[in-house]
Every structure is written in C-alpha cells, then in structure tokens.
TrEMBL record, chain A:
Any one GO BP annotation for this protein: lipopolysaccharide transport
Protein name, per record: Transport permease protein
One GO MF term attached to the UniProt entry: ABC-type transporter activity
GO cellular component, one term: plasma membrane
Keywords: Cell inner membrane, Cell membrane, Membrane, Transmembrane, Transmembrane helix, Transport
Transmembrane segment boundaries: 71-92, 104-126, 147-171, 275-295
Subcellular location(s) per record: Cell inner membrane; Cell membrane
Bilayer disposition of the protein: Multi-pass membrane protein
UniProt xrefs under PROSITE patterns: ABC_TM2
Source organism per UniProt: Streptomyces echinoruber
UniProtKB/TrEMBL annotation, chain B:
ABC transporter domain segment(s): 41-264
Family under the similarity heading: Belongs to the ABC transporter superfamily.
Xref: SMART domains: AAA
Name the record gives this protein: ABC transporter ATP-binding protein
Length: 304, 273
C-alpha cells in the first residue's frame, strides 16, 4: 500500500481457500450470519425477559427526573385528551350527533396514541440504539418489540385514567369491557409488525424518522379519532371505494373495537362489517409479515 | 500451513476481512442543506461524489486464533482495533471476507444497555438480561456483582440512580456486571483501565479467571504492561492493516520502536477511500 515502512518478519497469512477449508474442517460458523427463522424465533423467546425488562426500564426512566414522577404516565394522556376536546369538541363542534362524545374522543385518542407512538418508536428502534446493537448480541427484533411493549404499558396507564373518565361521564360497567383484551392483543400484534417494518427502513434511511410525524398525523385525521366514521359513511354520498378504505383502515378498526367494548351507546351497528375478521387479518398480516421482513435484514443492522 | 496446526483447535478465523464505515452528511465537507440536496440529486453517481464518506477502517486482515490463546491487539488510536473486535463479535457487518467463529464471541461490556436514570440495582438486572443471562443466574450472582463493584462500600448507593454515581463508581459497576458472565471467546476492549488502583487489581484478577474459563481471549489495550501480563500473542494493526502478528515480546518491541520514534509523524486516523 502507500506505507513505505519496512515489513517486519512475520508468518504470512495463509491463502483464502485454506482458511475457509480450515473453518469448515473444525465446524466453525460465520460470525454475524443470520440464523434460520425457527432459530431466530427460539433466540427471541430466550430473550423474552430482556424484552420486558427493557420496556419497563425505558418506561420508568422516562419520568424519573420529573417532580411528579410516574404521575405523568396518567397526566400526559389526560392532557392530550383535554386539548383534543377543546379543539374538536368545543371550538369545531365535531361532537354534534355523537352521544357520549368525551368517552368517544378519549378512547379514540388513547388507542390511536398507542399505534402512533409504537410506530414512531419502531422507526428509531435500530437507528436510535446503534450503541446497543454494536455492543451486545441479541436478536434485533427484541428492540422494536420491546418499544411496542413499552407503549402497551403506557396505554394500560391511560386505560386506568380512561376508566375513571368513563365512570365520571356515566358510562356503566358492562360485560363487553372484556372485549378490550382481545382488541388490545390484536392491536399490539399489528403495531409490533408495522414497527418492525419501520425499524428496518429507519435503520437503512434514518431520514424516515423526520417524515413519519406527517404521515402519522394524516393517518390520524382519516382514522376517525375525533369524528365518527359511521356518521360520514351512513350518508351514502361517498364513492364505495372510499367507504371501504375508511372502514378497513386498521387504526379505525382497532379504535372502533375499543369504543364498542367500552361505551354502551356505541352500538354494534356502528361497526364496519366483519370487524373482528378485519382486525385479526391486519394483526396477522402485519405481525407475521413484519417479523419476517425484519428478520431478512438481521445481519445488516448496525452498519454505520 | 493449516497442516502444521492440525493439532490445535481454531476458535476464530478471519479471512481477508475488510470493514468500511459509511458516514452521511459530510458532503462537500459541510452538513449544509444544499450539500444534502446535492447528495440526493446526484444519488446515482459514485458514493464519494454523492457526499457519503467511506472510512475504510480495517483492510484485508487475516489471522487464525486457537483455543487457549490470549491475543493482544495493539496499534495507535484509530487503527481499527475496536472495529475488528466488534466484527469478530458479529456486531459489525464485514464488507469483504469472512470471519468464522466457534461459539458466540462476546464483547466484555454492557454500557449501552444500562440506563442512567435507573438505580444500580435495576441496572444489574437489565445488564445481565441484555448479556443473555437468565433471571436465576442474575439472582444467584447479584450479591457477588455488587460486592465486587464495591459500590456499597461507602453507603447504600446501589439503590440510587446511576446518574448520581461518580464516573469511577459507574465504570466499576459496569465492569462488574460485564464480568459476571462466562464466555467461549472473550473480547476485552481497554476494560482494565477502570476505577482506582485497588479496583484495577481486582479486575485484573477477574480477567485472569475469565481467561481460564474462556477458550480464547482478545484484549485491546494501550497499556503495554497489561498486554505483556496477559497475552502470549499480539496482533499489531496500523491504519487498518495487520502490520505484525507474532509472540508478544517480538511485536511489542517493534511497536515501541515505532511509537517511540515517529509519534509526531503518525498518520491521521481516518481517510476517505
């Protein structure tokens, strides 16, 4: 090369094929190679305690410097809901015709926030944690999944606040509240899947993290977070395609399922057709598809 | 070549390894908006013209490490030692060539997994889990880790957030967590230089224990004494190239002549390829 230095006497490195053959003879494996899919799932399962511990640690660390501490876990979503109520309920008057507007809105905001922050966190899961990725060995899918789990824990705090709001606005406790559990499980699968897709994109092109807030805000406005999709589609003046797209939008599906589960004045007739099948379909498509898509690039995460 | 060594078991084989970092945002030497726009518009052109700097950190390095060896990695700052270590651990993808390993080599270090806002206690658990220890293993070794770190020598500090620790205390806890696990192939990056003198002595002792249990140890250090104490073979990297590979004394002598004589003229760390 360009160095003009005396080469000290040392044993020359053996030729390439010798080394490959030597590795093969002693059964050495290629370092950093991508494991097979079943092996990957097994490794991920072995790290389940790390995934949960990391999520809880992130959640706790979030407010550890604030004076009110963990109280912010509940305060933040409540303040968010208050802002949306002021703008959409009071100023714009979107609430006309929607019974129990405050529970309707707050449920929508909380459920949407779960998807939104999971996807945002997923986008930065690899690119924002390069130090971790370059220092330790673990299946990288642990990161986006862990971030989604953190958001799920955050949502559970919000749900506690939601129960108080619901009771405060006279919504009765009903057996249908149990349906919130399968709805959340499906939404979690969907969020984790999308997060893994975004994590792969974000790892390759960190700029996506700058773009996502705009994409997500647009998505929020078409998902019926603060207005009723059912009211809009019932008027029958929209093209059929628009109605179908609005009704099969996964965010809208999960929001409506949660409203159906929790609010007594939100009737089954207001749900889009085949809503549980749609919810399950999205969860499987995103969850399984996203996981495989993420795994396909496993060995490339961490490149600078 | 391989025939001569057939009696020994190789644990790590590096076969013509190249490692290249790509750094965005250095276009035309400035991170300005126009430079970024320029980069996007000229994407199809060569990476260099597009403003992506390629840093060729390790160039065509080949070596075979055998079971029972302790190998020192030396070289001036920025010569690619840590990068090579990360590639052996499978944490950095290689550009060309292959690295074959027996078992999973692990870097000694958990810094990145720990969180300053959490208590030392929770960081011990988190760090252990991040290294792949089971919850039972962590529970068993918890007291050992805390005692070894000496965090509680001056009062109950383990239940305080890590951000309240002095830098020496934090470094000691990090080392203690990292050293709690046994490894097949152990990679150590300047870990010996943490803490005060008494802790350094304890950590050197711990490294020796880890060495006895691990198959092969790699040690990156600028401290020639600790290399002499622990290693029987040394790889000397300079500007990403393997300059010398041989017995510790021989290589260190040449290295000391190199650094002692031409320190001022030592080359810049990173070059655009």
């Amino acid at each position: 090369m360009s160095q003009v230095l005396d080469t000290p006497p040392h044993t020359p490195a053996p030729a390439d094929d010798d080394l490959a053959a030597l590795a093969a003879r002693h059964g050495l494996s290629v370092s950093g190679a991508r494991p097979s899919l079943p092996e990957y799932v097994r490794q991920l399962w072995a790290r389940r305690h790390f995934i949960t511990a990391f999520a809880t640690a992130k959640l706790t660390a979030q407010y550890s410097q604030a004076k009110l501490g963990q109280l912010w876990q509940v305060m933040t979503p409540l303040l968010n809901a208050a802002v949306y109520y002021f703008i959409f309920g009071v100023l714009l008057g979107t609430k006309h015709g929607v019974p129990d507007y405050v529970p309707f809105l707050v449920t929508g905001v909380f459920v949407w926030t779960f998807t939104q922050s999971s996807i945002m966190a997923g986008t930065r899961a690899i690119s924002g944690n390069l130090g971790l990725v370059r220092a330790l060995h673990f299946p990288r899918a642990a990161l986006p999944i862990s971030f989604c789990l953190q958001q799920l824990q955050q949502l559970l705090f919000s749900m506690a606040a939601l129960v108080v709001i619901l009771l405060g606005f006279g919504v009765p406790v009903a057996p249908s509240w149990v349906l919130a559990v399968p709805a959340l499980v499906l939404q979690f699968m969907f969020n984790a899947g999308v997060s893994m897709v975004m994590a792969r994109w974000g790892a390759k092109t960190p700029d996506i993290a700058q773009l996502m807030p705009f994409v997500l805000r647009t998505w929020m406005y078409v998902s019926g977070v603060m207005w009723s999709i059912d009211k809009l589609t019932a008027k029958d003046h929209l093209p059929h395609l628009v109605t179908v797209v609005l009704e099969t939008n996964p965010a809208a599906v999960y929001i409506d399922l949660m409203r159906f589960a929790l609010i007594d004045s939100f009737h089954a007739a207001q749900l889009p057709p085949h809503v549980w099948a749609t919810a399950l379909g999205w969860a499987l498509l995103a969850g399984v598809g996203g996981f495989i898509y993420f795994w396909k690039a496993e060995e490339t995460y961490g490149r600078g | 070549m391989a025939e001569q060594n057939s009696g020994r078991i190789p644990t790590v084989i590096a076969d013509g390894v190249d490692i290249v970092y790509r750094v965005n945002g250095t276009g035309a030497g400035r991170g300005t908006a126009t430079a970024a726009l320029h980069r996007i518009l000229r994407r199809r052109q060569a990476e260099k013209a597009a403003g992506v700097r390629r840093v060729h950190a390790v160039k065509n390095v080949s070596f075979v490490a055998y079971k029972g060896e302790a190998i020192g990695l030396i070289g001036t700052n920025g010569s690619g030692k840590s990068t090579l270590l990360k590639a052996v651990a499978g944490l950095l993808p290689v550009e060309n060539g292959r690295i074959y390993t027996n078992g999973q080599p692990s870097l000694l270090g958990v810094n990145a997994a720990l969180m300053n806002d959490l208590t030392g206690e929770r960081n011990v658990h988190l760090g252990g889990l991040a290294m792949g220890m089971s919850r039972e293993q962590i529970r068993e070794r918890y007291q050992e880790i805390v005692d070894f770190s000496g965090i509680n020598d001056k009062g109950d500090f383990i239940t305080l957030p890590m951000r309240t620790y002095s830098s020496g205390m934090a470094a000691r806890l990090r080392f203690s967590i990292a050293a709690a696990k046994d490894h097949d192939v152990l990679l150590i990056d300047e870990a010996l230089a943490t803490g005060d003198r008494s802790f350094q002595k304890r950590s050197e002792q711990r490294i020796r224990e880890l060495r006895q249990r691990a198959g092969t140890v790699f040690l990156v250090s600028h401290n020639n004494k600790s290399i002499r104490d622990t290693c029987d073979r040394v790889l000397w990297l300079e500007r990403g190239e393997l300059r010398m590979d041989g017995p510790t004394e021989e290589v260190l002598k040449a290295y000391e002549a190199f650094t002692g004589g031409s320190d001022k003229k030592s080359p810049p760390k990173a070059k655009a390829a």
